[in-house]
Design brief:
This protein has one domain. The protein contains four helices and two strands. The chain has a two-stranded parallel ribbon with strand order 1-2. It is flat, with a radius of gyration of 21 Å.
């Protein structure tokens, strides 16, 4: 999991560096519902700001105030994580594979190529490791979600202290999403009645 952890740490460090270097402060009228601000990202979720309005005995003498909505700092990068099941270096043309992947080739040719991937050989555990930057057992996925047991490391539950990259980005004001296969929701929670904390939306992916 070293490569996965390094990639997530790099992404997180980049977000923090941009936040600290290019913090745009508050935009709009302070206290107005449409005001926005960026944060340094060192504490997530950020503490609630101090109320900036005025409260008096009469409403007409009082002044309302809304906390600014958190947004990414100006110039913040887009972040895209891709996982392809049952695929290795023999698949994409980016690393000499047989399937043409021109978009990935362009990305690779424009920057770094991360080619030291430690796979868990199973989809649910690999995905859990990718989105948390942790060993798959630490993230509760020693096996695929359907085979989960009630034992630590194998319960298919990503604990709150194993925060996902989606939650980190969301708390920094990013709009997040999850497309495609999930397979990280425990079978006992994969119904219309939930609970939904282990669904992508519960892990920071809108």
């Amino acid at each position: 999991m070293k490569a996965i952890s390094a990639a997530l740490l790099f992404i997180s460090a980049s977000i923090l560096a941009i936040s600290a270097a290019e913090a745009q402060g508050t935009t709009g009228t302070p206290g107005a519902p449409d005001a926005t601000t960026s944060i340094d990202g060192r504490q997530l979720p950020p503490p609630d700001p101090q109320f900036g309005g005025v409260i008096r005995d009469e409403a007409l003498q009082s002044k309302p105030w809304w906390a600014p909505r958190i947004v990414p700092p100006q110039g913040a990068p887009n972040v895209l994580l891709i996982i392809t099941d049952d695929a290795g270096f023999g698949v994409p043309s980016t690393f000499g594979g047989v399937i043409p992947t021109p978009a990935m080739d362009r990305v690779a040719n424009a920057g770094l190529r991360y080619n030291r991937m430690f796979s868990t050989a199973l989809c649910s555990p690999t995905r859990a490791a990718l989105i948390t930057g942790r060993n798959h057992h630490s993230a509760g996925f020693g096996v695929v979600s359907e085979q989960s047991t009630g034992f630590p490391g194998y319960n298919s539950i990503i604990a709150k202290d194993k925060v996902t990259i989606g939650r980190i980005l969301k708390d920094n004001g990013y709009a997040t999403s999850w497309f495609g296969k999930d397979h990280n929701t425990p079978s006992f929670a994969a119904s219309q009645s939930g609970p939904f904390d282990q669904w992508p939306t519960g892990m920071g992916f809108e």
